[in-house]
Amino acid sequence: MEKICRLLNEALTPYQADLGAADAQGNRQLTVRDPLADVILRRTVSERQLQEHRLLIDLVDGLHRDLQIAEGRLQPCVIAALQQRQQPPGTFA
User: Fold this and answer.
1) Which residues are bridge partners to 31 per DSSP?
2) What are all long-range contacts of 25-31, with beta carbons under 8 Å and residues at least 24 apart?
3) Which one, of 47, 65, 52, 51, lies nearest residue 11 by Cα?
4) Which of these, 65, 72, 70, 75, lies nearest to 38 by C-alpha position?
C-alpha cells in the first residue's frame, strides 16, 4: 500500500495524500491535504480501486476534478455540461 500512496502523492502534487487503515470491508479513508496541511478532500476508497490499474486512474482523474472544484477553478455545472455533450444523441445518463 506504501507504493500506491507514493503514486497518489506523485499524481496529486503539490497535495499530500494519506491512506488510512483498511476497515472490515477493505475500504480505506483517503485524505488529501494542501501544502499548508489543511484537509481539502476526504474519500472512502475500496481496495479494488487501489489495486486495479484502470480504477486507480479513474480515482486520480476524479480527485483532480474534485480538487479543481475545491480550488474554484471548475464549476460542477461545467462538468455536467461537458458530460452531456459527450453522450451520443438519444441516450440518457
Assistant:
1) 18, 42
2) 28/1
3) 65
4) 70
Please give the helix or strand (H or E) that residue 89 lies within, else none.
Answer: none
Q: What is the pTM of this model?
A: 0.74
Angstrom distance (rounded) from CA 73 to CA 92: 27
Q: Calculate the alpha carbon distances from 60 to 44, 45, 46, 82, 89 in Å.
A: 13, 11, 13, 19, 29
Amino acid at position 32, single letter: V
pLDDT tens digits, one per residue of 21-70: 999 999 999 999 999 999 999 999 999 999 999 999 999 999 998 898 88
For residue 50, the model assigns a pLDDT of 93
